[in-house]
Amino acid sequence: MKENFVVIEKNKDQISWLEEYHILYINGDATNDEILIKSKIESAKGLITCLTSDEENLFMTVTARMLNPSLRIVAKSEEEINREKFIRAGASEVVSTTAIGALRMASVMLRPTVVSFLDTMLRETKTVLRIDEVVIPPESKFINSTLAQIDLQNRYNLIILAKKEFADKYIFNPPPNALIQPGDIFIIMGETTKIKELESNL
């Protein structure tokens, strides 16, 4: 899934890196309303705020929510104890770097092969294998068909890992007779070219 994005950055060293990789950026302070408006935040679909401190990220969350009430905001939190504050401030999701780091260390110790496999998919730019999500649009030709009928595994060599029902409820390995409805979200695994092919045929 490819999305257009812009990075707001004021650090000169980081800007040099962005220029080296031809990444679109705005030079400025991300907590400044004018800079956010310049980045077209009012029409943006999402924002990732990963500034240095929780205070800055909280301020950024509040400001962004005021400028775009429908914006999906993913905020970085250094301290897990601040999660509820971020949610009240308007964050859609909060990622605690401390908690994620601890889980990562435990996973590397207990399930090193699984971690290595996932890293290969998520980090390596040369790999063709990805885990992605596919949203069924209202006009999809697959609506009211079953998973068995569309047969993603044979048509696109894709594996359906789960179907999202609502909130954080998932059906893992949904049955072949599951009906496809508008707005359904499927978590799939396969080659990036095949995922794009499926998305273009929805």
Mean pLDDT, to the nearest integer, reads: 92
As residue ranges, the low-confidence spans are none
Shape: globular
| Biggest sheet overview | 4 strands, antiparallel
Assess the beta-strand content as a share of residues.
15-25%
* Helical residue percent band: 25-40%
Distinct helical segment count = 9
- Count up the domains: 2
Gap between N and C termini: 14 Å
Kindly report the spatial arrangement of strands forming the biggest sheet: 6-9-7-8
User: Over all CA atoms, what is the radius of gyration?
Assistant: 20 Å
Order of helices and strands: EHEHEHEHEHHEHHEEEH
CATH superfamily of the largest domain: NAD(P)-binding Rossmann-like Domain
Instruction: Label the CATH architecture of the largest domain.
Output: 3-Layer(aba) Sandwich
Q: Care to count the β-strands?
A: 9
Main structural class: alpha/beta
CATH class annotation of the largest domain: Alpha Beta
The name of the CATH topology of the largest domain is Rossmann fold
What does this structure look like?
It is a single chain. The chain is an alpha/beta fold and 202 residues long. It has 2 domains: 7-97, NAD(P)-binding Rossmann-like Domain (Rossmann fold, 3-Layer(aba) Sandwich); 129-200, Regulator of K+ conductance, C-terminal domain (Alpha-Beta Plaits), CATH 3.30.70.1450. Helix content is 40%, strand content 23%. The protein is built from 9 helices and 9 strands. The chain has helices at residues 12-20, 33-38, 54-67, 83-89, 97-110, 112-123, 147-150, 152-156, 192-200, and strands spanning 7-9, 25-27, 46-49, 72-77, 93-96, 129-135, 159-166, 169-172, 185-191. Strands 6-9-7-8 form a 4-stranded antiparallel β-sheet. Strands 3-4-5 form a 3-stranded parallel β-sheet. The chain has a two-stranded parallel sheet with strand order 1-2. Strand 7 and strand 8 form a beta hairpin. Helix 5 packs across helix 6. The longest helix is centred in the first third of the chain and has 14 residues, at 54-67. It is globular and about 50 Å long. 15% of the residues are buried. The model has no long low-confidence stretch (mean pLDDT 92).
